[in-house]
Amino acid sequence: MSMSDGLDSAALRKRLAALEAQGEEARQTIDELKSRDALKTQFLSNISHDLRTPLAAIITHAEILREGMLGELNPRQHASVSGIVNGGQQLIDMIDEILTYVRSASDQVSLVRTEFSITEVVDQVKLLNEALSAKKRLTIERLNGDDLPPVYADRDKLKHVLGNLIGNAIKFTGDGGRIWIKFARRGVDGDELLIEVGDTGRGIARDHYELVFREFAQVDSSPSRPHHGTGLGLAIARKLVELHSGRIWVESELGKGSRFFFTLPLNPPRD
Amino acid sequence: MAATILIVEDSALVTDAFALLFIEAGYAVHSARTVADATRIGKEKAVDLMLLDLTLPDGSGLDVLGALREAGRAPRATLAMTGHTEPELRQKCLDAGCADVMVKPVPIRDLLRQIERLLG
Question: Which secondary structure element, helix H or strand E, spans residue A178, and what is its range?
Answer without folding.
Answer: strand A178-186
